[in-house]
Amino acid sequence: MINNHIEVLIERYPQLIECRESIQAAYDILKEAYTKDCKLLVCGNGGSASDSEHIVGELMKEFKLKREVYHDQAEAMQHIDPELGGILAKHLQGALPAIALTGHSSLTTAFMNDSNPELIFAQQVNGYGKSGDIFLGISTSGNSRNVLFAAVAAKAKGLKVIGLTGQKPCKLAQLADVCIQVPETDTYKIQELHLPVYHCLCMMLEEHFFGTQQ
Question: How far apart are CA 26 and CA 96, in angstroms?
Answer without folding.
Answer: 15
